[in-house]
Amino acid sequence: MPEASPQSVAPPAPSAPKDRRVLRAVLRWTAAVVVFAVAGTGTAYGITRMERTDVPGLATESDGRWEYPDIVKPPLPSGSPGPFAEENTAGSHHADLRELVLPAPEGAKADKALDGKDGWLATKDFLAAYESKDERETIGTLLTDHGLRHVAARGWTTTDGTRTRIYLLQFDTAAVTESLEQNYFSSVMAPPYALKGATQSLMDEDFPTKVVVEDVRRYPYTETKPYGAEHLRQAYLVSGDVLALVVQSRKGGAAAVPFQQTVVLQSQLLG
After folding, report:
1. Which residues of 45-76 are buried (b: 16+ CB within 10 A; e: fewer)?
2. 123 pLDDT exceeds 80?
3. Helical (H) or strand (E) element with 38
4. What pLDDT was estimated at residue 49?
5. pLDDT surpasses 50 at 40
6. Which of 189, 221, 197, 208 is nearest to 261 (CA)?
7. Which residues have C-beta within 8 Å of that of residue 232, sequence separation ≥ 6?
């Protein structure tokens, strides 16, 4: 099963029946959840490779989840603290941002347009994800004014035609990122800026609220009917000095399960 965890820390094994009862309680799914996170000493766990018969309340038929490769957090430079260590007052991700982008699931075709140069995507290519020219200009100014450092991205298309795009935007400090998010990119009703192909989206009320990754805030949205050429789902994530955007779209309907799975796994890599 894929998991996002530091290479230097091994996940602790349950040592008593009480611990196993707690683990079983955590593993109860809510609203067809496919992954969960357990935070503690910087370690997060996924259950995407778990058999459905091992999870209470689920049948054995496929739920549409994707098979991701084993996911491991990249190593930190020597002497550098994690983004949420007490001594890291700036909330900086010192690991290579390009290594913090979720890898594609098995069998997916990579979107080479998001590779960028040496793994860094040009700001204009990120802005191309938005529908309105005026809003692209507004967002571009906001990113410049807030001192955008890098954009790392990855995209792919699975065999069922679902397109996924993930963008990680890094700024100087967590305070700068939070200011940008709180003032311009977060909303409890609808995304402030429309993505191409989804002029009307609302907060995704079906996204499981009990699936939480510590130190990562998320804002999931889904396009309202009638859909355009594709149904589009999106989520903004905020983690320290990084603002992330996860987008999935598919003609006829983008499934909820792989979207939830992708959002949580990406959150684990950032958390």
Report:
1. bbbbeeeeeebeebeeeebebbebeebebbeb
2. yes
3. none
4. 39
5. no
6. 208
7. 195, 197, 198, 201, 222, 223, 247, 248, 249, 254
